[in-house]
């Protein structure tokens, strides 16, 4: 009898922990969201300052009421927070944090590729993939999310400063209205002498004597 060797299936390979890659990638992604929120908020502030300036001018000249002006100011402020929230919550490209780290540190997609290989099933991973993951883990110790995703100054900042100065000037400016002053015309006083008063008393006395009844009085 001949015995045939039965080939055993290869043991599944266990991928090492990718936490040292995922942590800086998540930090980089969070910084990407914050940076985008700041840039969007700057644009929203620029539009809001224009609206505030228009509202203040209309209120100064009396075109709109105080209540309408307050509502407009509240909406101008609210839209800044809405824009920043939408920018932060908006979805980023897949593995954007790892891609940013790879690009800044010149890692030739080592980190993002390692994360992609880590999502595969164990039987689908090749020795090349495991070697790529080990290589990425070694490079992950030297990445810096803060340097890879720096915060940017909004390009609108000169306009924001100019509009802030303009709004302060509008607040300090007072619109004067020329309203005519109402003048009541007076009647010239009548000169009355003592003889006139005596004559009036004599006249009233005669009337009183001629009409003795209560109804006449």
Question: What would your notes on this structure say?
Answer:
Helix content is 63%, strand content 0%. With 217 residues, it is mainly α. Helix 4 crosses helix 5. It starts with 18 loop residues before the first helix and ends in a 7-residue tail after the last helix. The N terminus is likely disordered.
Features:
about 220 residues, mainly alpha, 8 helices, disordered N terminus
In short:
This protein has helices at 19-60, 66-89, 96-105, 110-118, 127-140, 145-148, 157-172, 194-210. It has 217 residues and is mostly helical.
The SSE string, one letter per element, is HHHHHHHH
How would a crystallographer describe the biggest sheet? none
Q: Tally the helices: what do you get? A: 8
Distance between the termini: 160 Å
Unreliable residue stretches = 1-9
Task: Specify the overall morphology.
Answer: rod-shaped
Radius of gyration: 44 Å
How does the helix and strand content classify structurally?
mainly alpha
**Strand percent estimate:** under 5%
Q: Helical residue percent? A: 55-70%
| Rounded average pLDDT | 85
Number of strands: 0
Tell me the layout of helices and strands.
Blueprint: H1 19-60, H2 66-89, H3 96-105, H4 110-118, H5 127-140, H6 145-148, H7 157-172, H8 194-210
Helix pairs in contact: 1-2, 1-3, 1-7, 3-4, 4-5
């Amino acid at each position: 009898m001949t015995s045939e060797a039965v080939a055993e299936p290869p043991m599944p390979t266990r991928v090492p922990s990718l936490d040292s890659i995922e942590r800086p990638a998540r930090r980089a992604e969070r910084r990407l969201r914050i940076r985008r929120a700041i840039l969007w908020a700057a644009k929203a502030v620029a539009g809001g300052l224009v609206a505030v300036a228009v509202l203040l001018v209309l209120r100064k000249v009396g075109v709109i009421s105080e209540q309408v002006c307050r509502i407009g100011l509240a909406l101008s402020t609210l839209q800044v927070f809405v824009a920043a929230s939408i920018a932060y919550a908006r979805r980023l490209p897949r593995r954007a944090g790892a891609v940013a780290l790879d690009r800044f540190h010149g890692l030739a997609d080592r980190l993002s590729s390692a994360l992609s290989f880590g999502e595969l099933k164990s039987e689908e991973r090749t020795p090349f993939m495991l070697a790529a993951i080990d290589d990425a883990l070694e490079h992950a110790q030297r990445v810096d999310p803060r340097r890879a995703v720096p915060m940017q100054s909004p390009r609108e900042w000169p306009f924001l400063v100019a509009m802030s100065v303009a709004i302060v000037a509008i607040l300090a400016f007072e619109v004067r209205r020329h309203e005519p002053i109402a003048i009541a015309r007076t009647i010239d006083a009548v000169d009355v002498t003592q003889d006139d008063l005596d004559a009036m008393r004599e006249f009233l006395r005669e009337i009183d004597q001629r009409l003795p009844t209560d109804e006449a009085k």
